[in-house]
What does this fold into?
Amino acid sequence: GAGVSQSPRYKVAKRGQDVALRCDPISGHVSLFWYQQALGQGPEFLTYFQNEAQLDKSGLPSDRFFAERPEGSVSTLKIQRTQQEDSAVYLCASSLNWGGQVYNEQFFGPGTRLTVL
Amino acid sequence: GENVEQHPSTLSVQEGDSAVIKCTYSDSASNYFPWYKQELGKRPQLIIDIRSNVGEKKDQRIAVTLNKTAKHFSLHITETQPEDSAVYFCAASNEAGNTPLVFGKGTRLSVIA
It folds into this structure.
């Protein structure tokens, strides 16, 4: 079956431009996570959703970052007025979220590599 | 919040030897510890995970051990092969893995043929 997909795979933006990154989770997955991965580093949490509810956005670096998942499926991460320090790979992950004693794997997408010039 | 430390940052082994990567975590509430493998330019992929009610788990050449008292867990790869070369990340989370993962900084493993 189809895994998590992200688009675009690569994005080059001039400083100050707005960008929108899309994530298509695995069908039926309830939880959706956004991570930022700087070069040579581990992924760092940005925000996550359970269905359409954004449960935690404490990892968003500034108010220029905004995420939404209006219908509980596809999610978009938007970055306004991009800065050079926003250059990174943005990873999306989804999990089935059965709750209880079931531990659920987070499946990652291929990421969007954002370069801000 | 949770903090995960991972060592070493780079590791080179001869083909056929074993590789061990170690992680420590700070939050005693963490109960789910996955390991991800990431090849260059690819997505992270889960290779093994362990829950806090288990001390060890094995899957063919890969094993993970967990010491809750000391708050550390380790990945063991035996009979390494060149295709094991990649960056490996440990992670931790609470609430049954349905909350955000906190990752270590990664270990770049090189298996020399």
Q: What stands out?
A: The mean pLDDT of chain B is 95.
